[in-house]
Amino acid sequence: MATSPEIQEIKNKIDVADFIGEYLRLMPAGTGVFKALCPFHNEKTPSFMVSPSRGTWHCFGCGAGGDIFEFLMKIENLDFPEALRVLAQKAGVTLSRQNREVLSRKNRLYDLCDLTARYWHKVLMESPRAQEIREYLQKRGISEESIEIFRLGYAVDEWDNLYNFLIKKNFRPEEIFAAGLSIRKERGSGYYDRFRHRVMFPILDHHGRIIGFGGRALKKDEPAKYINSPQTEIYNKSEALYGLYWAKDEIRKKDLCILVEGYMDVIPSHQTGVKNVVSISGTALTEQQLKAIKRYTENLALSLDMDEAGQRAALRSVELALAAEMNVKVISLPQGKDPGECATNDPDLWHQAIASAQPVMEYFFSQATKNRDSNKPEDKKLIARNLILKVIQLGNPVERDHWLRQLASHLNVSEASIRELAVKAEQGRQNSSSGTRRPQTGLAQSPAVAATKPQDGFSTQNIITRDLLIFSRLLALIWVYPEFLFKLPEILSPEMVGSELAQGIYKDLILFYTKNNELFTLGAEERNEQQIFDQFISQVKNQAADQSATAILEQSFLLAQGDIISLEPKDAKIEFDTLLRLIKTDYFNSQIAELQSALRQAEMSGDRTAAEKIYRELSELIRQKAAL
Predict the structure, then answer these.
(1) Number of domains in the chain
(2) Among 32, 77, 155, 535, which lies 20 to 30 A Cα-Cα from 480?
(3) In angstroms, rounded to a whole number, what is the distance separating the alpha carbons of residues 156 and 153?
(4) pLDDT tens-digit map of 491-515
């Protein structure tokens, strides 16, 4: 990445921990250092480290690292010009017009959308043609302050009003189309405005950049009440959440995100003082949107319209949120009322509904048993079927056991029968998803891995996994600091290392250590890490090990010569201990997961003896993990 005075000034003004803390929950990890769960690969134990003094971050789990620019580009999938614009605005640094890095196609689209929002807002606030629209918003209870905060606007009832305005501002027709603001004519050439005679709601990303628009129709006979910008280079419908830019600080402060359905639910809620509200804007909730919310809180309260479509949307959202391991509640409103109407006409009712939100399983129970007689066999069957499908989605075995017991008690049937149904439902669920591909873990590749060249057609990219990345870095530390190997066999058994490949290398290393102890006892001036490495890899090759082991060892030596050799001994020891904890934690996590699965099956089948035995083993593993 090119270095310039402007870039350096941005780095000096933005603290790396403060910036990354807007995305991740950072925890102290020593003097002036922070740790977090890495957002770039799946992990249960933090291996993502942030060093404010160096202005850098690094993940020991996947190898990713860099400064604030690399972090923003990676987590937001931005190119460098976009990241530069975002960080410059955040730091209050004015970029020179001569800086070509500022110029990019996406930045042109951001500029275009910002100008469009300013134009439509000016029309709404000042044009005589918008008098009717101002009166409409006033009747809907939208204050002038909210119009300013949310940058509402008005698209006039003309075919090319906006298009002609933007052309005069030196934007090209293809750019206006690429931003989703115009539509190609079906006959002949040219374009016309996508939004006409509508109240306009700019959609902002969490940095405050306008990425798209939603428009509410003002004509009663308009077939589409709301239309949104189409998918563009800067507007991804599956990621965007209306209101997140204004709500994110309040979500973090209250540790709760309230999810509503539309623009006109978000704004009235803000006016009542409830500002931790975002909207899915008429689309189905997605995993990407939940990921954005989880940057700020693990707690989600759903308040969607109470009509049939709203209920279906709520159910889909709950299932996704539970799969994302979020704590979910449901906000219930009187029949026929939506959050916006409630917040406008009866703010106290809106506040009360939020305060009395039900945990999702309580809500499911109340809905499943409503208007049904739990004494009738046919109703019992329906209630059990509906609720068991919800219970098996719960990830916590204690919570799942609680609700299975509750269901058996409510229906006045044996726990065994309910657990039998649960086992069948779980098997059916697993069978229905067995053909689905598992999502990618997002495991990043370290610079050292990228630098390793294929040998005889073999590439380390084919074998690099999280456990191999960690193990490779552990080896790199040993090549530079051989004394780290002294007590390693006593505290790290081969089965803890991970894959069979890593275990095989580790066993060979321990054997090499016992046979060549004198190499590891030399002083710092006498020893040469390359001597130890060369002798060990020579032994591995002589044993006709496969090329995978050779590639991993050579990668570890590249790491030693690059990252590790520059570390101070104190820092190297800290990193070595961190890697050991990661390896052992991963091992305990895998063992715990296997036992939890076995415990779940034992509980559902009613085998108390097996469940108790598994529970004791599980408790011991959890104790050992906690002692790390």
Answers:
(1) 5
(2) 32
(3) 10
(4) 888 888 878 888 888 888 888 777 7
